[in-house]
Amino acid sequence: MSIEAIKSTIGKKGGLAPSNRFQVIFAPPAVSLLNLNPENIVGSIISGGFSIQNLINDPRDISILCSKASLPGRTISTFDADMHTQQNKYPQTFIDEEVSMTFKLTNDYYIKNMFETWMSGIFDTESYRVGFKKDYSVDVVIQQLNQKNIPVYGVKLEKCFPIGLSAVELDNTADNQMQEVTITWAYDKYKPEGPLSSTASALRSAVDFLT
Fold it and tell me: Using CA atoms, how far apart are residues 48 and 154, in angstroms rounded to an integer?
């Protein structure tokens, strides 16, 4: 295949999809967006980083601080059936992969605090009580963007909630290295979406937060 043929194919498909153009959109449970912990407030005042705007965290900051995300894969599981002369495989169910996201940590540890609060509503480590799924699950939208930051593809993770919060490594030999934390998600299933349907899902997520 010639270089010109490859360039022509890429050109008529709108170019190659860049891995660094994406956004994640979701509105966590309301309690996770409130930053009213007196200890955190006093700490931010002492450190000089207090802002009245940070008392209610903006969900749009989540997408800005997300440095890595993955679009999930799907596997169809099968069973073997004996058809007298040979065994054939037949579909039985499907398995969606877990999704992980990595977020940059700011000095107020906004992302880590938010997910810790969210996860305490899923499983309370003090009382050992499990919450109701309708209260802690949300729809999460992941969008692939083109070079003009326009969505070209998306997936919606239905009834999604965090199940893993990675450790944060501290290292006094690491100069100018920014802290990050990785979140692992569980969800019922994912729904592939085109540009318009993905944008509509993102708007619904924003409306759900405002209401």
Answer: 39
CA distance 99 to 101: 7
Domain boundaries, the chain: 18-71+86-210
Q: Residues 155-188: pLDDT tens digits?
A: 999 999 999 999 999 998 888 889 999 999 999 9
Kindly report the number of other CB atoms within 10 A of residue 24's CB atom: 19
Predicted model pTM = 0.82
| C-alpha torsion angle, residues 53, 163, 64, 145 (rounded to 10) | -140
Structural class in CATH, domain 18-71+86-210: mainly beta
Q: How does DSSP assign the chain, residue by residue? A: --HHHHHHHHHHTTSPPPTT-EEEE----HHHHB---HHHHHHHHHHT---GGGGB--THHHHHHEEEE-PPPEEEEEEEEE-SSSEEEEEEEEEEPPEEEEEEPPTT-HHHHHHHHHHHHHEETTTTEE--HHHH-EEEEEEEE-TTS-EEEEEEEEEEEEEEE------TT-TTPPPEEEEEEE-SEEEEE-HHHHHHHHHHHHHHHH-
Two tokens at 52?
Answer: 């009245």
